[in-house]
Amino acid sequence: MDPSSQGVSLYIPQPAINATVEEDILLxxxxxxxxxxxxxxxxxxxxxxxxxxxxxxxTQANISQSHKDRVCTFDNGSIQLFSVGVRxxxxxxxxxTERLGSSQFGTIVLHVSEILYEDLHFVAVFLAFLVAxxxxxxxxxxxxxxxxxxxxxxxxxxxxxxxxxxxxxxxIEC
Length: 174
Known about the structure:
alpha+beta; six-stranded mixed β-sheet; 11 strands; about 35% helix; membrane; transmembrane helix; signal
């Protein structure tokens, strides 16, 4: 057997991931080894170390109770975390162990932040809407005021004309 083909190699394309709350995150890895390895993912944070999942590709994954319904495993060793929260920020350590005992581990650091910009976006859109409605109402009031002013001028003008005619008629009768 070729000695260079023994052992485990592990590749992590994205060792640091930034995400926002409620996103689905793929912790992507790829490995190569002889035979079918055992893959284990652990989560470490300031709270301590917690096992997430352990499985052999092609078999049922043993997912910890804390991550039930939140993790999906892939045969290449990757896992997907559904609807992450700030509490999911930390280091995710994968260990790939082949049948003969050699292993390789790697780390992915996940940082999850709150979605503040969406709240600000909503407020900005709402304020723009209110400004637009206010401008429309002010314009409408201005147009109504102009129309009322013109109507009053025409009415005064007609009143002056009718008063002048009456005066002229009265002058003629005398």
